[in-house]
Automatic annotation (TrEMBL):
<dbReference type="InterPro" id="IPR011990">
    <property type="entry name" value="TPR-like_helical_dom_sf"/>
</dbReference>
<feature type="repeat" description="TPR">
    <location>
        <begin position="160"/>
        <end position="193"/>
    </location>
</feature>
<keyword id="KW-0677">Repeat</keyword>
<keyword id="KW-0256">Endoplasmic reticulum</keyword>
<comment type="subunit">
    <text>Component of the ER membrane protein complex (EMC).</text>
</comment>
<dbReference type="GO" id="GO:0072546">
    <property type="term" value="C:EMC complex"/>
</dbReference>
<comment type="similarity">
    <text>Belongs to the EMC2 family.</text>
</comment>
<keyword id="KW-0802">TPR repeat</keyword>
<comment type="function">
    <text>Part of the endoplasmic reticulum membrane protein complex (EMC) that enables the energy-independent insertion into endoplasmic reticulum membranes of newly synthesized membrane proteins.</text>
</comment>
<protein>
    <recommendedName>
        <fullName>ER membrane protein complex subunit 2</fullName>
    </recommendedName>
</protein>
<keyword id="KW-0472">Membrane</keyword>
<dbReference type="Pfam" id="PF22890">
    <property type="entry name" value="TPR_EMC2"/>
</dbReference>
<feature type="domain" description="EMC2 TPR-like">
    <location>
        <begin position="107"/>
        <end position="191"/>
    </location>
</feature>
<dbReference type="InterPro" id="IPR055217">
    <property type="entry name" value="TPR_EMC2"/>
</dbReference>
<dbReference type="InterPro" id="IPR019734">
    <property type="entry name" value="TPR_rpt"/>
</dbReference>
<dbReference type="InterPro" id="IPR039856">
    <property type="entry name" value="EMC2-like"/>
</dbReference>
């Protein structure tokens, strides 16, 4: 069954993206082939729906992923006919199409030059600024991508998506303190909503769709990676590990049955217990003090029990436990298996 066209195609599997792109011919046939940008046209054709244009965008992304460039261009032409060549969002979508069709770095450089020219004329063109960042990153120019993001955030400091992307770029360069700082900005900007959290909702790089528990878990992961990085300065290990414990604990407090939060809590508590009691000592700054050994053991037991429950129910496809990422369930199973083999030895 093909996914609904209104669903974002970014996180779809290749098979689902193919199924979505195959809906394009039928959608184009059922939609007007010519669309006027004049507001008077609604007097004769009726009011248009904004969902229609989002559907065109989603179909373009899916068609580009599956190599159907012709259908992608047909969808793009209708967006241009409706909104015009100078529309910022249309410019970004056209750039995405050109990036997908580019053959080699030379063609990508030409697209990058087009982005730079557009930004020279209008440096407030946010969609093009974000496409330039994405293109620089895809070309492996990470420092340039980070610099472009910093420029964007100077202009739009409340853009949570840009902060998240900057954090990920810093992480890919091994700049853990900077990655943590950027992700903390995401947490500040994220809506503090106590809505029902789906335990199967996978973390992604679109913070506006993320529950705060997912951002806390991501921060815990960054803190753990910083703590276990080689060449860590003395005194920072305990600080990072204490923060990781707090972040993972907060994550599962906000969202019960959240696999990634329990996995992180299990990982960090296991590491602390293996390090021995010497690693768990009162800190000079109480803000970064680790819990005592007994508390860490209890957290480890809690995470173990919950992960075992999630793995068991997920493997049985029990109702209410479906939809977890197979990769994350497999990682949890392996982590629990390591504990079991250690006990046997």
């Amino acid at each position: 069954m093909a996914p609904p066209i209104l669903n974002s195609p970014i996180q779809l599997s290749p098979a689902a993206a193919l199924a979505l792109s195959q809906q394009t011919p039928a959608f184009l046939r059922s939609s007007p082939s010519t669309v006027s940008s004049s507001p008077l046209s609604t007097l004769f054709s009726g009011p248009e729906k904004s969902e229609q244009w989002l559907q065109y965008e989603n179909l373009i992304v899916s068609c580009l992923r599956t190599g159907d460039d012709q259908a992608a261009h047909q969808c793009l032409q209708r967006l241009v006919a409706r909104f015009g060549d100078d529309n910022e969002r249309v410019q970004a979508i056209r750039g995405l199409v050109k990036e997908a069709e580019a053959q080699g770095n030379g063609a990508l450089e030409e697209v990058l030059n087009e982005y730079n020219q557009i930004l020279n004329e209008n440096d407030a063109n946010i969609p093009i600024a974000k496409r330039r960042v994405a293109l620089l990153r895809s070309m492996g120019r990470l420092p340039d991508a980070a610099s472009a993001l910093v420029q964007l955030l100077d202009f739009s400091p409340t853009d949570a998506e840009a902060w998240s992307e900057l954090s990920d770029i810093y992480l890919s360069q091994g700049l853990y303190p900077q990655a943590i700082y950027a992700m903390e900005e995401v947490l500040v900007l994220a809506p503090n909503a106590w809505n029902v959290c789906s335990p199967t909702k996978a973390p992604n790089l679109s913070p506006m769709l993320m529950h705060p528990s997912q951002i806390h878990a991501r921060l815990g992961e960054l803190q753990y990676m910083a703590a276990t990085a080689p060449g860590l300065a003395n005194g920072l290990y305990q600080k990072y590990m204490a923060e990781a414990v707090k972040r993972f604990s907060r994550s599962i407090e906000l969202c019960d049955d959240y696999l990634r939060g329990y996995y992180g809590l299990k990982l960090v508590s296991k590491r602390l217990l293996n390090d021995g009691t010497k690693a768990i000592r009162p800190a000079d700054d109480s803000e970064f003090a680790l819990p005592d050994t007994n508390t860490i053991e209890q957290l480890n037991e809690l995470a173990t029990a919950k992960l075992s429950e999630i793995v068991r129910h997920s493997a049985a496809s029990d109702r209410g436990w479906r939809g977890y990422s197979e990769a994350e369930v497999a990682a949890a199973r392996d982590l629990l298996a390591d504990d079991a083999s250690a006990i046997k030895r």
